[in-house]
Amino acid sequence: QVQLVESGGGLVQAGGSLRLSCGASGRSFSSYALGWFRQAPGKDREFVATINWSGMLTDYADSVKGRFTISRDNAKNTVNLQMNDMKVEDTAVYYCAAGGEPYYLHSMDYWGKGTLVTVSS
In a 10 Å sphere around its CB, with 0-12 CB exposed, 13-18 middle and 19+ buried, how is residue 40 labelled? Predict the structure, then answer.
């Protein structure tokens, strides 16, 4: 099993930046694909970004491509999401997740509890 804990959520003004982090509390997730998903009020949870086990391959939702960057550090057991040029529409609870390959299928087995990101106008 993998236990995931997100951090870095908060309030940011439109056009600003935030960096989310997620770490494993025990077991290493170096062999897993990792990802970030989000759920806005009244909407279904949606895919944001995923990264393969080595960190060499990534996938992004069209809505965040060019603004968000996912990265991982297997030695530190962490995955990050750098969010730039934030929009009000990015407001959501963000969840990190881990799952088996292939990364582009967005199939995840373990989930964090989420961290709230609020973008103000």
Answer: middle
What order of strands is seen across the sheet that includes strand 4-7?
4-7, 18-24, 78-83, 68-73
Amino acid at 12: V
Give the pLDDT confidence score for residue 97 in this predicted structure.
Answer: 95
Distance of alpha carbon 37 from alpha carbon 51, whole angstroms: 12
φ and ψ of 105, to 5 deg: -85, -10
Q: Are 20 and 115 in contact (CB under 8 A)?
A: yes
Look-up of token digits 């997730």: 29
pLDDT of residue 111: 94
| 21 band by pLDDT with thresholds 50, 70 and 90 | very high
Of all residues in the chain, the percent with pLDDT exceeding 70 is 98
Nearest to 71 by CA among 22, 38, 17, 105: 22
